[in-house]
Design a protein that fits this description.
The structure holds five protein chains of five kinds. Chain A is an alpha/beta fold. In chain A, 40% of the residues lie in helices and 16% in strands. Chain A has helices at residues 10-15, 50-69, 85-97, 109-122, 151-169, 184-200, 220-229, 240-252, 271-277, 296-308, 314-338, 343-351, and strands at residues 37-43, 74-80, 102-105, 126-128, 144-146, 175-181, 205-212, 233-237, 259-262, 285-288, 379-384, 387-392. In chain A, the strands form two sheets. Chain A has a seven-stranded mixed β-sheet with strand order 7-6-8-9-10-11-12, sandwiched between helices. A five-stranded parallel β-sheet of chain A has the order 2-1-3-4-5, sandwiched between helices. The N and C termini of chain A lie far apart (64 Å). By secondary structure, chain B is of the alpha/beta class. Chain C has two domains: 1-80 and 156-240, Rossmann fold (3-Layer(aba) Sandwich), CATH 3.40.50; 90-155, no CATH class. In chain C, 37% of the residues lie in helices and 25% in strands. Chain C has nine helices and ten strands. In chain C, the strands form two sheets. Chain C has a six-stranded mixed β-sheet, with helices on both faces. In chain C, strands 2-1-4-5 form a four-stranded antiparallel β-sheet, with helices on one face. Chain C is globular and about 50 Å long. Chain D contains eleven helices and two strands; from the N terminus they run ααααββααααααα. Chain D has a two-stranded antiparallel ribbon with strand order 1-2. Helices cover 74% and strands 3% of the residues of chain D. Classes of the chains: A alpha/beta, B alpha/beta, C alpha/beta, D mainly alpha, E mainly alpha. Chain C binds chain E through residues 51-53, 72-74, 77-78, 82-83, 85, 89-94, 98, 101-103, 105-106, 108-111, 114, 150-151, 153-154, and chain E through 188-190, 193-194, 196-197, 200-201, 203-212, 265, 332.
Chain lengths: 412, 234, 240, 288, 333
């Protein structure tokens, strides 16, 4: 049922309720119809996902000016969902009350689904910027679209890229070990791996899949275990802090694989990774969707980012920033085509998206019937001079891949 | 030397002491008698600064010590041999004695006092490196007294020093108290063993339900029919 | 007449120290039996074993024909032995009435009935006027009476009283003595530990004297109090 | 035993010693004051950031920074005890719990606000070195950190064993009434104790910063880890904390190696449960 | 409750009735944001009642109630997603599952005389142990999470707990009010008296014939069962579960804040606590936005400070103080 026709302003309601809400003093924002689309961006800026959430947030901060250069008017409400689904849910309600016509978020699957409940009921479209759990688009939400690959897609594209890497560098790995964090993202990847690797036709054997607890403080045992297996390639799905520990212990234990490759996980290209490891951070490869350096949208975004966020490197942040920006771009584009911000209309326009110019590598953005963009290719990004650099596919690459990676010795 | 004036003490909502007054002259042995729960231990602890009285004054050598904390009171020379001895069981005898001399007033004469105490209680010397918890009851009582002496007290309050001890040891303990008194230390003696304590006391007070109900010299009280009836049953 | 409570050869030691050694005695139905002895003689330990708060190291305790040694204290209570504690243990945050209601609830689950029992007992013990006070606000003598009331509310056959007279004024002592005598007359058997000799001599039909964990005398009050060993141990050698 | 198993055990021991030092602080505070410091991991993380700043700004090696940081933490602990904690001594556990949970929340989010969410590494020149012993590889930083942890723990042992203040603190733990009876300044000694507990944490956090990178998210995991260790070793026992640290370090390492790394903490918790049930005072603790 | 009702003064009755009426009528006048906040208030009030039963009444500190929450949530949602068994049936399977876990923890703890801090740590250990276990339990999706569809057969029907905020609003209101009634009823029963006795002094309680082990076990049984129901609510309200979220120690902590802040061992404490804390967090968010502050973490800093202030100034909780000031009888209830 809809509540709109008898809704009071939030302030008057609170004043009339004994809920100890005297402190609630946020100004009631008048719902004026403007030409700008009002989007609430919910991100985990604090809590355990703060690192990624704040990175995405920087993308959202840059977005309005860039979008306006492309002729889109958006007004953003920035909300910290504290890595907490309870907060995500109530704040989505609040944002919609304050006039948000579209929601973008929320990096984390639990938070995203909490938001999806509200969006579904209030018929406000939710655009998932980042969130790999395949189930997000499998549960039947009609007001949800996702411009981000599922875990399975990431793995599938990642394995393709690994094949391409082998072809391009002429290496001949015989064995590999897959190491992943045992969290929802790592598990989504693991499932993809279990399903896809046997039929991917890669020339090496997967010796073992090792899960580690992301709450554990130490990866030395995991590395010792890997050293015992002695694989040629190390395939990893990590979070940033773990990637650092992993490489550090690999170096200390003098274990030298041909390469450390991630089929699409954060960690290997985060600023903290470069800061912690210096030259040892180089030559690791992440096969994941990446900003297309040749796209004019990317170039505009990069220029704006450099101006607005001088303390951060676009090259490093472009994954989180790019996907967050693209989500906003998708919303703005649909709004322009729909000509209205009414939920169902906007959603209809979203489903009809065919967005040629966007940030991330890939064909025009389209959504299938479930709201999933099924065509988000991965590129290969290799750390070179402590900068993530596109090395594959060749048409967007700025350098050629180097494998096997140079030995650890002599790098420090 | 010590004057307690109209103090009342509460534990939570319950009153432990009600308007208690008494005075202790320099060099005296003052006995405080009363049944379990009459407030004797509360009185001692309040004087020692371990409880704060709700009202009243406690004058020690004419300074009001009510409201001072226990280490400050101790440092003025008010020593205590507590009920249940309250030694530190896992510390050695030697460490226990040291703890008695942590007060600023006693630090300088620590070694001297240690010699004195060990001379007084040779048993403690034999067991100097043993954990205090392994001592017998009588030895623990000696340790408690010795530890108290390490703090150079001019007044010692003894709380049930004979509790749980064999009669011969009780005898020793009482003799020690007399000796200490003879050496110039003022003593306050709280005892259930009424006959004994009244006998050695120069002045005595009877505490009932947190109030002083009788007072007089030890001999007077010993002869008092009410005391004999209430506490001796004879 | 068979004994209501029969203790045989009961012993308890803590780390090699004998707190109670080989104590035997009988308490007959309907009598008031007192245990006296100086502090540290082992009276409370003996009590705790009877009440199930401690398991004995040796010996037997028979209550109404049943061995109860080694039972938990709630099981002992269920069998009809009520007790008080030397160091009183009221339920401080509960009212006086609720303290007693808890006791009464041992025999019934009906709250109304438990309240009725509590009222009776509180009236009996002169605490009815304070029924709405918190137990934590009572004076010590009142707490002692509250302990008795709570134990009585369990409707015991045998009541174990651990120094309930301590700290009471002579008039209060007399009051309790008469209450206990009334209770005894109505059929309650009482086993008490007491220091207040005036109460012991007034109440007890027989007395057991403990010293250093061992029974040194048993008999009527007159006999026992004339026994020199008792006087020496209890009142102190110098009292003589 | 294969060399690689031995390698895993050695790593477990070394890491366990640093964890043990962190747990030692918790154990000292509880053993003396019966206050359970639920903000323990948070203090550890503050120390990690302190080590990070000293290294970044003044280029001080954490092994040296250990001393000033421990000293400052002593001061913080002393003041914290005198102001915030004192009213809660002897109060119910849940009240202490809420106080310290509140404090922990403030600390974690304060760190987030000031330093941001990124992990802050200390890049020592020898960060990546390791010793080769036969076929074993042993990290240099872990060896140094473990030695330093042992040294700090030893210093603490000596303090408690041989100084009068240390003895007085033990006396307070042994018999609080007795401490009042002989006129020990209990409030001051408690403040010293909390100070020492935090100094331990300061030292442990500094060493931890050489092994892991400082980030606000670590705190809760460290608190849990410290609890597991002290319960296993014996809450209130100093040797117990170190032994517990080693035990947890080694058992996690072995479980991670032989079973599944993601399940390794499960074994610590299982160990914790077993110890609680069979020997609640902990392996080396006295019943409290 | 009847006793409580009779004891309450006329203005106490009036306040209670007015509040209840206000809550019943709230959906008529309030917006959805406020409803979503109220749902959380009732949810935490409900869980607070469940926890308070064990801690406030039976005196046992559990810091691992996330275990029962998670087991309840996982059992009912897994039954629904895997076997199509609806939540109204699932809840009756979720309850025994969580209760069995609770009884096991209680049995292990109290049989072996583990109390106080040690018992609290035992409960944490079990919750964490289970969290990692569920991280590896493939049937419920392991660490990848368990998801409930919104458009499967019958998924949108109220009897499958599919529906809008009104359903959840009234459901949480019923849970909270029902739990308050239940707790009040239990408090006034012989069981309640026994719990209080055991909490106040276990030794004395045993001396009046109370089997303290059994009394604690019953408290645990009811508390874990109630928490499991809360878990079912949680699972269907959010429609996704991750072990790292639902079994996490921070869940255990957040559900005990309301009863402690409100007043441990009181009947209205958990409710008052929830009414204070959840809106406090929300209003801090609102305030920061009003002042244009975007400082992630700042809100929680204030929240932590408020917790410290309340526990320092009102260690017995806000409700007993409030009740005294409003001159309501039964302040201690």
């Amino acid at each position: 049922m809809s509540f709109d026709h008898r809704k009071l302003s939030r302030r008057s309601v609170l004043a009339g309720t004994a809920a100890g809400a005297v402190l609630l003093g946020a100004p009631a924002i008048v719902r004026a119809q403007t030409k700008a689309l009002k989007i609430a961006v919910l991100l985990p800026q604090s809590g355990y996902l703060a690192q990624a959430g704040q990175s995405c947030h920087r993308g959202a901060l840059v977005a309005p000016s860039v979008l306006s250069d492309f002729g889109h008017q958006v007004e953003l409400i920035h909300i910290d969902m504290e890595s907490n689904p309870d907060v995500a849910r109530t704040q989505t309600e609040r944002a919609i009350n304050e006039g948000a016509q579209c929601i973008v978020g929320a990096f984390d699957s639990a938070g995203t689904l909490a938001i999806a409940q509200v969006c579904e009921q209030r018929q406000v479209p939710l655009i998932v910027n980042i969130g790999a759990a395949p189930q997000l688009t499998e549960q039947g939400y009609k007001f949800l679209v996702r411009n981000f690959p599922t875990g399975g897609m990431l793995v599938k594209n990642g394995l393709h890229q690994i094949q391409a890497l082998i072809d391009a560098t002429k290496i001949a790995p015989k064995t590999a070990v897959f190491l992943h964090a045992n969290d929802n993202f790592g598990m989504a990847q693991r499932k993809g791996m279990d399903a896809l690797f046997p039929t991917a036709g890669l020339p090496f054997k997967l010796l073992e899949s090792i899960a580690y607890d992301p709450k554990a403080q130490d990866l030395s045992v995991e590395v010792t275990k890997i050293r015992g297996l002695n694989p040629d390639l190390l395939l990893v799905v990590t979070r940033a802090a773990d990637a650092i520990k992993l490489v550090r212990d690999t170096v200390r234990q003098k274990f030298q694989p041909m390469g450390i490759i991630s089929p699409g996980a954060p960690g290997l290209y985060d600023e903290e990774f470069y800061k912690a490891l210096g030259p040892l951070a180089d030559y690791h490869i992440d096969a994941l969707p990446w900003a297309n350096p040749k796209s004019k949208v990317t170039q505009a975004l990069e220029a704006a980012f450099k101006k607005q966020q001088p303390n951060y490197r676009f090259a490093v942040e472009c994954f989180n920033v790019g996907f967050t920006f693209d989500a906003l771009l998708i919303a703005a584009d649909a709004f322009k085509r729909a000509g209205t911000a009414t939920g169902p209309e906007l959603m209809k326009a979203l489903m009809a998206t065919n967005l040629v110019d966007h940030t991330m590598i890939g064909p025009p953005i389209k959504f299938d019937a479930k709201g999933q963009n099924v065509d988000i290719p991965s590129g290969c990004v290799q750390n070179r001079a402590q900068t993530p650099t596109v090395v594959l596919p060749a048409e967007v690459a700025t350098m050629t891949p180097v494998l096997p990676m140079p030995p650890w010795q002599g790098r420090t | 030397m010590l004057r307690v004036e109209n103090i009342s003490v509460f534990y939570g909502d319950a009153q432990a002491l009600d308007d208690v007054s008494l005075s202790v002259d320099e060099g005296a042995i003052v006995a405080i008698v009363g049944a379990n729960g009459a407030g004797k231990t509360s009185l001692i602890r309040t004087i020692a600064g371990m409880h704060r009285p709700a009202s009243g004054r406690i004058l020690f050598r004419d300074t009001d010590i009510a409201g001072l904390s226990s280490h400050q009171v101790c440092n003025l020379g008010v020593g205590q041999v507590a009920e249940g001895r309250q030694i530190f069981p896992s510390l050695t005898v030697s460490e226990n004695l040291d703890m008695g001399a942590m007060l600023p007033r006693a630090r300088a004469k620590r070694e001297q006092n240690r010699e004195r105490v060990l001379a007084m209680f040779p048993r403690l010397k034999e067991r100097i490196a043993q954990a205090a918890g392994t001592l017998s009851g009588g030895e623990q009582q000696m340790l408690a007294i010795g530890r108290c002496l390490m703090g150079e007290p001019s007044l010692i309050m003894f709380d049930e020093p004979s509790l749980g001890l064999a009669p011969t040891i009780v005898h020793d303990v009482l003799k020690t108290i007399r000796d200490l008194n003879a050496a110039g230390i003022t003593c306050v003696l709280v005892e259930q063993n009424v006959a004994v304590s009244l006998k050695i006391a120069s002045q005595a007070y009877v505490l009932e339900n947190g109030r002083v109900t009788l007072s007089g010299t030890g001999a007077e009280l010993l002869a008092d029919e009410r005391v004999r009836q209430a506490y001796l049953g004879i | 007449m068979t004994a209501l409570l029969s203790v045989r050869d009961l012993s308890k030691h803590f780390r090699g120290l004998a707190a109670v050694s080989h104590v035997s005695f009988d308490v007959n139905p309907g009598e008031i039996f007192a245990i006296i002895g100086p502090n540290g003689a082992g009276k409370t330990t003996l009590f705790n074993m009877i009440a199930g708060a401690m398991a004995p190291n040796g010996g037997t305790i028979t209550f109404a024909g049943e061995h109860i040694e080694g039972l938990r204290s709630d099981q002992v209570a269920q069998r009809g032995i009520g007790r008080t504690f030397q160091v009183v243990k009221p339920f401080p945050a509960l009212t006086v009435e609720d303290n007693v209601v808890v006791g009464a609830l041992m025999r019934t689950n009906a709250l109304g009935e438990a309240r009725k029992v509590a009222h009776e007992v509180l009236t009996q013990l002169d605490l009815i006027g304070k029924r709405d006070q918190l137990a934590s606000s009572l004076t010590l003598p009142d707490r002692k009476r509250l302990e008795v009331a709570r134990a009585l509310a369990t409707r015991p056959q045998l009541l174990l009283l651990d120094e309930v007279m301590a700290g009471l004024r002579p008039t209060e002592t007399d009051r309790i003595v008469s209450i206990l005598r009334d209770l005894n007359r109505s059929g309650l058997t009482i086993l008490l530990i007491e220091h207040v000799m005036r109460a012991v001599t007034a109440l007890a039909s027989r007395i057991l004297v403990l010293h250093h964990g061992a029974a040194i005398a048993e008999g009527t009050p007159d006999d026992v109090l004339r026994n020199p060993a008792v006087i020496e141990s209890y009142l102190g050698a110098e009292a003589l | 035993m294969t060399a690689i198993t031995l390698n895993v055990i050695v790593q477990g021991v070394l890491t366990g010693l640093v964890y043990g030092l962190m747990a030692l602080g918790l154990s000292v505070i509880f053993g003396v004051m019966r206050v359970v410091n639920f903000a323990h991991g948070e203090f550890t993380v503050i120390a990690m950031y302190a080590a990070f700043i000293l290294f970044e700004v003044l280029h001080i090696d954490p092994l040296i920074a250990l001393l000033p940081i421990a000293a400052v933490f002593f001061g913080i602990g002393y003041l914290l005890q005198r102001t915030l904690i004192t009213p809660f001594i002897g109060r119910a556990e849940h009240e202490q719990f809420i106080l310290l949970v509140g404090l922990a929340t403030v600390i974690v989010n304060g760190i987030l606000l000031i330093f941001g969410p990124d992990a802050r590494p200390i890049n020592l020149p020898y960060s990546f070195d390791s010793y080769t012993v036969g076929s074993l590889f042993i990290d240099k930083v872990r060896v140094l950190a473990a030695i330093a942890a042992l040294a700090v723990a030893a210093a603490l042992f000596l303090f408690f064993r041989y100084t009068r203040t240390g003895t007085a603190i033990r006396a307070c733990a042994d018999n609080l009434t007795g401490a009042g009876v002989v006129g020990l300044n209990v409030k001051q000694l408690y403040a010293v104790t909390f100070g020492l507990g935090l100094a331990c944490v300061g030292a442990a956090g500094t060493l931890m910063a050489t092994i892991a990178d400082a980030s606000p998210g670590l705190a809760q995991a460290y608190t849990l880890l410290a609890f597991t260790i002290v319960i296993v070793g014996g809450l209130g026992s100093m040797v117990g904390a170190l032994v517990g640290g080693i035990l947890i370090g080694v058992s996690e390492a072995l479980a991670g190696f032989y079973i599944q790394p993601s399940m390794k903490s499960m074994f610590s918790f299982a160990l914790l449960i077993i110890v609680l049930v069979l020997r609640p005072q902990g392996l080396l603790g006295r019943r409290l | 409750m009847s006793g409580l009702w009779h004891n309450a003064g006329w203005h106490g009755k009036a306040i209670a009735l007015l509040l209840l009426l206000a809550f019943l009528a709230a959906p008529l006048v309030s917006d959805r944001y406020l409803l979503s906040v109220l749902i959380l208030v009732f949810y935490f009030a409900y869980l607070g009642q469940a926890w308070n039963l064990l801690m406030g009444f039976a005196g046992q500190l559990s810091l691992g109630h996330a275990l029962y929450l998670g087991l309840g949530a996982y059992t009912a949602t897994a039954l629904w997603t895997l076997f199509g068994i609806g939540p109204w049936i699932g809840v009756f399977i979720a309850i025994p599952v969580a209760a069995a876990a609770g009884m096991f923890v209680g049995w292990l703890g109290w049989r072996f005389a583990i109390e106080g801090v040690y018992f609290a740590l035992l409960t944490i250990a079990f919750a964490e142990f289970t969290r990692i276990g569920f991280d590896h339990l493939q049937i419920t999706g392991a660490s990848g999470g368990l998801f409930l569809s919104v458009n499967g057969p019958g998924a949108d029907k109220w009897w499958n707990l599919g529906g809008g905020p009104l359903l959840y609003y009234y459901l949480s209101l019923i849970l909270a009010v029902g739990a308050t009634f239940l707790v009040a009823r239990l408090r006034q029963s012989s069981l309640g008296y026994r719990w209080l006795a055991v909490r106040e002094n276990p030794e004395a309680a045993q001396a009046v014939g109370i089997n303290i082990f059994r009394a604690r076990m019953i408290a645990m049984l009811i508390s874990s069962s109630m928490t499991a129901v809360g878990g079912v609510f949680y699972g269907f309200y959010y429609r996704n579960l991750f072990p790292s979220q639902v079994f996490d120690i921070s869940r255990s902590i957040e559900l005990i804040l309301a009863p402690i802040i409100g007043g441990l061992g009181t009947i209205f404490g958990p409710v008052v606590g929830a009414i204070i804390l959840t809106p406090l967090g929300e209003s801090l968010t609102g305030l920061m936005e009003a002042f244009g502050i975007n400082a992630p973490g700042a809100k929680l800093i204030f929240y932590g400070i408020v917790l410290m202030i309340i526990i320092s100034l009102r260690p017995d909780g806000v409700w007993p103080w409030l009740a005294r000031h409003l001159k309501l009888d039964g302040a201690r209830k």
